[in-house]
Specification:
This is Glycosyl transferase family 1. Keywords: Transferase. This protein is of the alpha/beta class. It folds into 2 domains: 147 residues, Rossmann fold (3-Layer(aba) Sandwich); 191 residues, Rossmann fold (3-Layer(aba) Sandwich), CATH 3.40.50. It is 38% helix and 16% strand. Helix 2 packs antiparallel against helix 3 and helix 9 packs across helix 13. The radius of gyration is 27 Å and the shape is globular.
Length: 429
């Protein structure tokens, strides 16, 4: 009869048995080595079993769309992606669809500053899952939850990308989705380059028409009544290199050297606590300039809309955008916009109400954490300064631009058009 210790000994890999023979106290060494090997083997087997369960659950079977609609995203975060998830959920509700929500803010380490407006899906509810998170977060979430929410449901990924070519590292995420929606045609074109033939990629911009239109309230933000207020806003988590605040600062300073009307540039910054060195450098750059004011307070979507409504011009010299939420919100609020004339924002910035800045396409550099290759736009700061100076000084022209925003026919601003686009993408019986 073979003893348990001898049986364990015989199951050990040969290198472990050989090293134990040479060691002092070989039986004890063999037992400890065997125990460690079995523990490692058990962990490996458990990981493989979890991966197999995940793959079974997330395997795409092209299920027909059904209700309810569950939006997975950063619902509780003051963040552009969070606002996008909240807007989509409101759009589905406006279409008369039952909406559920799953907040992943804490899952990725974002502060949960806002309540989630919709309940989570019930244990027996299936329907459609729309994950408003990009592939790196989607792959991690599916792995760590073993794809539990995706099993038995049609799954639509809502992804945004800011450059012409989507990262090859995103390709495995297509295995988890039945189709992909994007906020812009620009982003859709980038994703189609790496999408497998079975996965359809379609733009469905955000339903901006649902956003409130608050009245201007300069006193609330301490803004001077008789000054032209130029607003730029950016999230340092979206990288300062892409948002290019220093380019906007230089253009504003050039524009205001010779303007007759006084102007104030308000820089609304998000993520300053996460990137203190970047924010400190920016603060030092503008510390002695009374025409530039930094704001780092956390604002809700409603408060941000009030700040935008209290401004005269919205400025963005970004290098690339996957949608351009602030610019779209500004147009919806009747504000003239001045921005780099490249990437997704050109889809809704029409020449009647907006000014596009000339640019050159340059290689991406200095931002390897997120954007590692490709090209993006370098705005012509002289062109931006000339156009901004005219907007500041020519009040009649500025009012003409503002009035023209009401005629902007982009789908983001048109309720019937957006609802029709949704019904085409999500045919429900």
């Amino acid at each position: 009869m073979t003893s348990p210790l001898l049986a364990l000994w015989r199951r050990l890999p040969a290198p472990i048995r050989q090293s134990a023979h040479l060691a002092k106290g070989a039986p004890k060494a063999a037992f400890l080595a065997g125990q460690a090997w079995l523990d490692d083997f058990a962990r490996t087997q458990a990981a493989r079993a979890a991966e197999a369960r995940t793959l079974r659950r997330v395997r795409r079977r092209n299920r027909r769309p059904s209700l309810p609609i569950t939006v997975v995203g950063f619902h509780g975060a003051v963040h552009g992606l969070g606002e996008g998830a909240r807007m989509l959920a409101r759009g589905f509700a406006d279409a008369g669809l039952p909406v559920r929500a799953v907040d992943l803010s804490a899952f990725v380490g974002m502060p949960v500053d806002l309540p989630t407006a919709y309940p989570p899906p019930g244990p027996r509810e299936r329907g459609v899952v729309i994950s408003h998170i990009n592939p790196p977060e989607l792959l991690r979430w599916a792995r760590e939850t073993e794809g539990q929410l995706l099993g038995g449901r049609r799954h639509i990924g809502y992804w945004a990308w800011e450059l012409e070519d989507a990262p090859a590292a995103w390709a495995p995420a297509f295995d988890l989705v039945d189709e992909v929606w994007t906020p812009s045609a620009f982003a859709a074109d980038a994703l189609r380059k790496i999408a497998p033939p079975r996965v359809k990629v379609t733009p469905l911009p955000y339903p901006l028409y649902l956003n409130p239109r608050p009245a201007p309230d300069r006193a609330r933000f301490g803004l001077p009544a008789e000054t032209v207020v130029v607003l730029m806003a950016f999230d340092l988590r979206s990288t300062a290199q892409r948002k290019n605040p220093y380019g906007a600062l230089r253009a504003f300073r050039m524009a205001t050297r010779d303007t007759a009307r006084p102007a104030l540039l308000v820089c609304k910054v998000v993520g300053a606590d996460l990137y203190p060195d970047t924010f400190a450098a920016l603060a030092a750059d503008v510390a002695s300039d009374p025409t530039i004011r930094l704001m780092r307070e956390s604002l809700s979507a409603e408060d941000m809309a009030a700040l935008t409504a209290s401004s005269d011009i919205i400025l963005s010299l970004h290098r690339s955008e996957g949608y351009g939420l602030l610019l779209a919100e500004a147009i919806w609020l009747g504000k003239p916009t001045l921005a780099t004339g490249w990437s997704s924002n050109v889809e809704f910035m029409d020449p009647a109400s907006s000014q596009l800045v000339d640019y050159d396409l340059i290689p991406v550099e200095g931002d390897g954490a997120i954007y590692q290759s490709g090209r993006w736009a370098a705005a012509d700061e002289d062109d931006a300064a000339r156009k901004l100076a005219r907007m500041i000084d020519d009040d009649a022209w500025l009012k003409t631009l503002a009035a023209a925003t009401a005629a902007n026919g982009h789908v983001s601003f048109d309720r019937p058009a957006w609802l029709n686009a949704l019904r085409r993408l999500l045919p429900l019986r």
